[in-house]
Amino acid sequence: MNALEIKDIMPKCNHGYGSFQFNERTFTMKILLLAAHPDLARSRINRLWFESLSALPNVTARDLAQVGGPQMRFRREQEHDLLLAHDRIVMQFPFHWYAAPAVLKAWIDEVYSDGFAYGQGGDKLKGKELLLATSTGGPADSYHAGNFNNFSMDELLKPYQQTALLTGMTYLRPFVFHGMALASDDEINASVPRLLAHVTDEALDPRVRLALINRQRAERKTVGLAA
Ligand SMILES: Cc1cc2nc3c(=O)[nH]c(=O)nc-3n(C[C@H](O)[C@H](O)[C@H](O)COP(=O)(O)O)c2cc1C
Q1: Which residue's CA lies nearest to atom 17 of ligand 1?
Q2: For 66-77, how does the pLDDT look when each residue is reduced to its tens digit (9 = 90+)?
Q3: Would 227 be classed as within a structural domain?
C-alpha cells in the first residue's frame, strides 16, 4: 500500500496542510479538473487549489482561461475526448456575481453539444460525476434567507445541478469556501486538505452515502442498538 503524505506530492505549496493523508489504493477514478478563473495568477485561493489538485495522481488539470485564450474558444473534439477519458469532472471557480466566471459558460456552451451531451445519441456524459468547488467573498451566514445574499449555495448553483441532471451526470455535494473578503492566509491554507479530501472521496455519490448509512443501521440492529 502506498500512503502518500500530501506534502510529499505538493512540492510547490509548502504551507501547513494538516493531517490529510492520501491513500493511492483507495483512489482509482480519473479526475478532470477544469479551473475557471479570469486571472489565476492573481488569485489567492483558486491558484492554490489548482496547484494542489494538479499534483495529485489521476488528475488532469486545465486552466480554461489559458486553454481558451482571450476569445474563450475551445476545440470541441479535444474537450470531448478528455471528458470521455475521465470519471469525475471537477469545476473549480471563484463565485462571481452568483455564478462561475464567463470562461466556464463559454466552455460548457461549446462542449455540451447536441449528440454528445443531449439529443439523439447525446448520452456521453451519462454516469459521470460533477463536482463543483467554489470560493465566495461573502461569509457562510450571508448565504441564508434573511441575510444579504439571501439564498443558499445549493439554490444559487441550481443551473449546474440541473445541467448535470439533464446530461445524466451525478451531481455531488459541492465544496464551498466562504468568506474570502476577510480570509487570512492560514484559513486559505487550511482549506487545501479539506478540498483534497472532498475531491478524492469516492463515496460522495448520494446513493453510496445512503447505502453506507443503511448498512450501518443494519449492523446496529444486529447487535440490538438501532431505532
Ligand atoms: C467580478 C466579481 C464578482 C464577485 N461576485 C461575488 C458574489 O457574487 N458573491 C460573493 O460572495 N463574492 C463575490 N466576489 C468575490 C469573489 O468570490 C472572491 O474574490 C473570490 O472567491 C476569491 O478567489 P480568488 O482568490 O481565487 O480570486 C466577486 C468578485 C469579483 C471580482
Answers
A1: 136
A2: 999 999 999 999
A3: no
